[in-house]
Amino acid sequence: MTLTVQPHRESVGLKPGRLYLGGEWVAASDTWTHRHPATGEVIGEFASATKSDVDTAVAAARTAFGTWSTARAGTRVTLLHRYAELLREHAEELRALQALDNSVPVSFTSGIYAMSVAAAADVFDHHAGWVDKLGGQTLPPYQGGDHLAMTFREPIGVVAAILPWNAPFLLFAQKVAPALAAGCTVVVKPSEYATFTVLRMVELLAEAGLPAGVVNVVTGPGDPVGEALITHAGVDKVSFTGSRAVGKRIVEASAGTLKRVSLELGGKSPALVFADAPNVGLAAATVVGAVTLGLSGQACVANTRALVHRDVYDEFLAAAQGVASAVTYGDPFDPGVLACPLVNERQLDRVLGYIERGRGEGRLVMGGQRLGGDLAAGFFVGPTIFADVENSATIAQEEIFGPVLAVIPFEDEDEAVAIANDTEYGLGASVFTAGAQRAFRVSRRLRAGTIGINGFQIEPHLPFGGFNQSGLGREGGASSIEAFTELKSVLMPLTEEMM
Ligand code: NAD
Predict the structure, then answer these.
(1) How far does CA 361 lie from the centroid of its chain?
(2) Which positions fall inside the Aldehyde dehydrogenase domain (predicted)?
């Protein structure tokens, strides 16, 4: 039977996508046609913004900055909490929209915390708590005498929030919530592969009572829409999550006006499985799950390199294949479907290209093919495992962004840490061991932004970001407040005399 998602499209009542500029929903002269990655069906059309639309969005954000940055703290707190509640109320609808956008199964967006609407709502609640705590310091005068030295935290200004397609709930929240809490105004640019989800999230912001112009949305392809934002003189900060290549382009483009830049980029994260792992089968399930379930390895922190001690290597490989063979594909609305296709044809070709290369670099023990039959119209690739890979291999060094695991044996802890750190990236890592001392010792030695011990989790109040070329700066918790504010020093004499 041919796979179709059309009935879901009807039941969600999908509207044509428009731009949101200064509180108005506006059609654009050009449009983008979105095709579903699992079926190839046309899902809908949304606006592709012009440079002039981007100018309007930035101008609206600039105007709104005056009032939003000075708004009563209580107004911002109430709004952020009200929005968190609205997100929770609309969770099912948002999961459905995401499944229509990027085909991430509802089983995953309802079952995995970091991918859930609940996590995005928690991020808004968390940042509501920061609004009235954006304090500075009062310091004793350095040179003695009678004056006050103080610091203030000020909102950075107009923020361009540029999003990838793979986790729109959390990543929209990680940028918009702290920006609003800090008093910034925002122009959001969703990925062209997750636009309908983000448009609805913005519509709910308006329903929550957000004043016109505080958040604006420009949709369409990275070039020209994202380009117009990152080169715009009216944008004070670019907060970007996406690929390393675009991240580098943003750093170049920011030089013109020395924009502030935060970059959350890709990874080639290692999982280190020691011989004393509490349960090698469970470790294999966790590692393979991260590379296959839900996003089919299209996750920045997916542990795509499994470094496994030789004593448990065969056991790990056997368990990994068992878990991978249970992954199911198909209609993302079917609760029994566990993984998505690759997001587009370009990504399909890229992943198949890496797999071809991998055949000469390691021992293919599973997968390696595009899936056919009922799934032939989609961009599905099954779980793919290469064993006996050298860490210098292309498939162990480059971010493939697909369901491809490179398994690499090691002899001892020093070798495992050296292999783990031998990468241009540094986003995440996980350590599987029963020894608490080893767990902490190895965690300290790993050059990565987030480490999971016997698993991997992301929490809204913790900083998240990368070492090396996995990014610049951190998002999450207090780090987000720093990322969306500038520090100002103020000095004042306490007498009538000049300082
Ligand atoms: P991408 O870089 O292709 O696109 C990301 C966004 O940038 C999209 O909105 C796109 O339209 C826009 N864009 C493209 N070219 C642009 C340009 N010249 N100027 C401005 N904007 C431009 O990434 P993607 O395929 O959407 O997402 C996958 C990548 O994102 C992977 O590398 C993944 O590791 C990374 N990612 C990182 C994190 C993290 O938190 N570190 C989270 C999710 C995804």
Answers:
(1) 30
(2) 25-490
